[in-house]
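New to this. Please check this record:
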Amino acid sequence: MRILITAGPTREYIDDVRYLSNASSGRMGYALAQAALDQGHEVVLVSGPVDLMPPKGCEFHAVETTEEMKTASVAAFDRCDGVIAAAAVCDYKPRERIEGKLAKTGGPISIDMIETDDVLAHLGAAKGRRWVVGFALESQNARENALQKLRAKNCNWIVLNNPTAIGSLNNEVELIDESGQPIMRWAGSKQEISTQLITWLETNLP
């Protein structure tokens, strides 16, 4: 198979030096890329800014903003059999980016925010016969929220994890299908979970 994998955070700039982002390390996405390569698959890795080296043998695309991730992912998806969307993209961005550096004023400031493009929803809408695995990081009503995300973004399956996964070497996840119930549970290092997920896909894809 040829698998598109998205990884890491995205950044949305307030001005030329400040940006909004999140604490995603990219480890899950990079572990998935390595596991897929180890099991003989081709990998296209689209990654936001992280402190990791891309696995040898993958096609690598470094991006920064959510728009850049969407553009690179859409272009690559046409050549892939499916996608595992492990990236933690920014949900919001400033309506306007300030040129230069925003100076202190001694008082509060307000920044008008708008939603970013939804990379996973865009891929899900265009999947055709391809398969889509999304990731959902939830802390409350976890399975219900994950199921809503699966349906809204036209995923085949969604991997549910919780905020303790951020920056960690380990993870504990549930793989959820359209029934809303976990069909698999995996715990351990992110590399171990990645190997189990890739193996599961090999066995269960039509």
Notes: Helices lie at 27-38, 66-77, 119-125, 142-152, 190-204.
